[in-house]
Amino acid sequence: ARRIWLTRHGQSEFNLVERIGGDSNLAPAGEVYARCLPDMLIGRLPLTDDEQCVPVSVWTSTLRRTIQTARYLPFPKLRWKALDEIQAGTCDGLTYEDIARQSPDEFAARSKDKLRYRYPAGESYMDVIQRLEPVIIEMEREKECIVVVGHQAVLRAILGYFMAKPLASIPTLDVPLHTLIELRPRPDGTMDFDYIPLP
Ligand code: F6P
């Protein structure tokens, strides 16, 4: 793609109470981010040779919080199941504190090897990286600009891929809320990137 923007969904009701997973709606601050996103983006769109704005497509997951975050963007949208957040299985809906208390062994195992740790009946980062392969192939093939409105673990995997980060660093890459990440391909095939915070 000519240019790629990555953003997490705006703050969700689950983010507010620090619960993982689920399919909650945006919290008020997340709704503010959704409303600001078009302006954050539109000023950064490259122009074609005849000074037209280049075409943009917006990819979301199938979860409410990404669809709600994308809803004010005036571009065609595509929903990918493969962009859904890491499945936390039996831990879905819990806080990290709940997990540490209820399942200290699971909590310790994840701290020890966050890349390979698989939630019971859920996924690992390695699983997420694997299921994202078709999305990444399409991102590389796409001629237009792409905005991906995703989730923390999924965007760590995508950012790690495009920035050629070591696998082991992917589960802790910095992908903050309310921040647009801009990726610009360089002629040599590597990427330049910027973090653009909510003004
Ligand atoms: O807390 C938000 C969230 O997207 C959760 O739904 C998800 O389980 C988590 O982040 C992934 O981040 P980490 O791998 O650091 O737990």
Major beta sheet, specifics? 6 strands, mixed
Structural class call reads alpha/beta
The shape is globular
**Bound ligands, named by name, code or SMILES:** 6-O-phosphono-beta-D-fructofuranose
What is the arithmetic mean of pLDDT? 96
The strand line-up of the biggest sheet is 3-2-4-1-5-6
How helical, in percent, are the residues?
A: 25-40%
**Per DSSP, what share of the residues sits in E-state strands of 2 or more residues?**
15-25%
Distance between the termini: 26 Å
Order of helices and strands: EHHEHEHHHHEHEE
Radius of gyration (CA) equals: 17 Å
Give the uncertain stretches in residue-range form. Answer: none
Q: Helix count, per DSSP? A: 8
The number of strands is 6
Describe this structure in words.
This is 6-phosphofructo-2-kinase domain-containing protein. With 199 residues, the protein is α/β, with parallel strands linked by helices. Helix content is 35%, strand content 17%. It contains eight helices and six strands. The chain has helices spanning 13-16, 28-42, 64-70, 96-102, 104-112, 125-131, 133-141, 152-162, and strands at residues 4-8, 56-60, 77-79, 145-150, 179-185, 191-197. The protein has a six-stranded mixed sheet with strand order 3-2-4-1-5-6, sandwiched between helices. α4 packs across α5 (104-112). The longest helix has 15 residues, at 28-42. The structure holds 6-O-phosphono-beta-D-fructofuranose (F6P). Residues 15, 20-21, 85-86, 88, 151-153, 171 line the site of 6-O-phosphono-beta-D-fructofuranose.
